[in-house]
Amino acid sequence: MLSSSASTMFSDLEVEITPDAPIGPMTWYGIGGHADILIRPLTIEALTTLVMRCRRTRTDLRVFGKGANLLVADDGVSGIVITLDTPTFREITYNAEGDVHTMRAMAGADMAATLMDATRRGLEGLSQMAGIPASIGGAIRMNAGGKYGCIGDAIETVTCIGRNGELVTYPKSELTFTYRQTNIPDPIIIAATFRVTPTDPIALREKVKDIFSYKKSTQPLADHSAGCTFKNPIDPETGEFIPAGKLIDRAGLKGYCIGGATVSTHHANFIVTNPSATASDVMRLLAEVRKRVFDHSGIQLEQEVVIWRRKEEDTA
Ligand SMILES: Cc1cc2nc3c(=O)[nH]c(=O)nc-3n(C[C@H](O)[C@H](O)[C@H](O)COP(=O)(O)OP(=O)(O)OC[C@H]3O[C@@H](n4cnc5c(N)ncnc54)[C@H](O)[C@@H]3O)c2cc1C
């Protein structure tokens, strides 16, 4: 059993180990199963050693951010899940050299808390992220964003754990951020620096509030969901994005339910759940929506939500 060998495998490291950890309830959906093992590294060294030991022993390793874009299967996931929510991985620091201001955030820092801290200091750069629940690492992995821009817009560098456990820092000239994607080659992001610009804190606070209000009026932020279920497909004729929500709405699916999962009547690209829902309800609804949209429009929707199953991550 991995859970008993894990305590031996990592007992010399500065980590907190939880066997059979209920990670499904830690997601925004609040549903789904357990991880065989959840590990919270307390230091960067413990994290890099852990990653190298998992690589050497071919043990599955996944990173859990805030679970805002994640659906965990009802029977949970095998291997090790790490979460970077300990103080070392939530640090935010600021730097100014002449006119150049930067903010460095560790990957486990909460996006809303980071944005709030920068806003209080009158440092603009991440206002486009208002109302997007995320950890810094999860937001970078997904290149989260929307109408006002994406996280990639403000990135100066991203630091990851490289092949041999070394820390690798990529400058923005080597990084690409496209719609919900990046070219970051390494599976674990540990920190990033952002370009920020000093501005009037009061005006900035108003701007962040306006962006948040816009999001609140267009998305069911208070419901259990993982945000947009599908990516917006590209119209082959115009090259423009077609909102997936519009396609789902046109297929007559707003309010359509399977078990405790429902296509939101507020925003058709959100699948929302009630407390009786299972991850299997969401997966079945997702497949049905995809099928019906294809039957109606001939367009194949691509999943944005990440699904963790026992064997492997499914984003296809
Ligand atoms: C109410 C609501 C509204 C939303 N609105 C938006 C929106 O407007 N725009 C948008 O883009 N998204 C939106 N989302 C989706 C979600 O906020 C983003 O995808 C966000 O980036 C997820 O971050 P997370 O930390 O929760 O990642 P998780 O959901 O925990 O993980 C997502 C993926 O990132 C990986 N990951 C997490 N941390 C790391 C790390 N340190 N290193 C490497 N990989 C990592 C995970 O392994 C997984 O593959 C919304 C979600 C909700 C619930």
Can you lay out the helices and strands and say which pair or pack?
Blueprint: H1 2-9, E1 15-21, E2 35-41, H2 44-56, E3 61-64, E4 70-72, E5 77-83, E6 92-97, E7 100-106, H3 111-120, E8 123-124, H4 136-142, E9 145-146, E10 149-150, E11 155-161, E12 167-171, E13 177-178, E14 181-182, E15 189-198, H5 201-218, H6 244-250, E16 257-258, E17 261-263, E18 271-273, H7 279-297, E19 306-308, E20 313-314
Parallel strand pairs: 2-5, 3-5, 4-19
Antiparallel strand pairs: 1-2, 6-7, 7-15, 8-15, 9-10, 11-12, 11-15, 13-14, 16-17, 17-18, 19-20
The chain binds flavin-adenine dinucleotide.
Residues 28, 62-70, 84, 107, 132-135, 137-139, 141-142, 144-146, 188-189, 219, 221, 225-227, 306, 313 line the site of flavin-adenine dinucleotide.
Structural class: alpha+beta
β-strand number: 20
The mean pLDDT is 95
Tell me the distance between the termini. 30 Å
What compounds sit in this structure? Answer: flavin-adenine dinucleotide
Approximately how much helix is present in the residues? Answer: 25-40%
Number of domains: 3
Largest beta-sheet characterization? 6 strands, antiparallel
DSSP helical segment count: 7
Identify the overall geometry.
globular
Unreliable parts: none
Name of the CATH class of the largest domain: Alpha Beta
* H/E element order: HEEHEEEEEHEHEEEEEEEHHEEEHEE
CATH topology of the largest domain: Uridine Diphospho-n-acetylenolpyruvylglucosamine Reductase, domain 3
- Approximately how much beta-strand content do the residues carry? 25-35%
- The Rg value, from CA coordinates, equals 20 Å
Annotated CATH architecture of the largest domain: 2-Layer Sandwich
